[in-house]
From TrEMBL:
<protein>
    <submittedName>
        <fullName>ABC-2 type transporter</fullName>
    </submittedName>
</protein>
<keyword id="KW-1003">Cell membrane</keyword>
<dbReference type="GO" id="GO:0005886">
    <property type="term" value="C:plasma membrane"/>
</dbReference>
<keyword id="KW-1133">Transmembrane helix</keyword>
<keyword id="KW-0812">Transmembrane</keyword>
<keyword id="KW-0472">Membrane</keyword>
<comment type="similarity">
    <text>Belongs to the ABC-2 integral membrane protein family.</text>
</comment>
<keyword id="KW-0813">Transport</keyword>
<keyword id="KW-0997">Cell inner membrane</keyword>
<dbReference type="InterPro" id="IPR047817">
    <property type="entry name" value="ABC2_TM_bact-type"/>
</dbReference>
<dbReference type="GO" id="GO:0015920">
    <property type="term" value="P:lipopolysaccharide transport"/>
</dbReference>
<feature type="transmembrane region" description="Helical">
    <location>
        <begin position="48"/>
        <end position="69"/>
    </location>
</feature>
<feature type="domain" description="ABC transmembrane type-2">
    <location>
        <begin position="1"/>
        <end position="72"/>
    </location>
</feature>
Length: 80
């Protein structure tokens, strides 16, 4: 639920104070939504540095999740 509210779909990122906007760059979905918004509504190109941060954060979460899954794979069915 928290991730849904931290992804600016119904509100623009501009209403968030500048000192807290770095949190939105750590949310990969927020960066992708803003890139679509900027491309479609703004008529410009997306911020490629933010997209690269989102890519590496997504890659990190994938690798970390895969590691945790492989570590507990034998017991995974017992807990789920």
């Amino acid at each position: 639920m928290l991730w849904m509210y931290l992804t600016p779909i119904m509100y623009p990122v501009d209403i968030i104070p500048e000192r807290y906007r770095f949190i939105f760059s750590l949310n990969p979905m927020s960066v992708i939504i803003n890139a679509y918004r900027q491309t479609i509504l703004g008529g410009g190109q997306p911020n490629y540095s933010s997209l690269s941060i989102a890519f590496f954060m997504s890659l990190f979460v994938l690798v970390f999740g895969f590691y945790i899954f492989k570590k507990s794979e034998g017991q995974f069915a017992d807990y789920v």
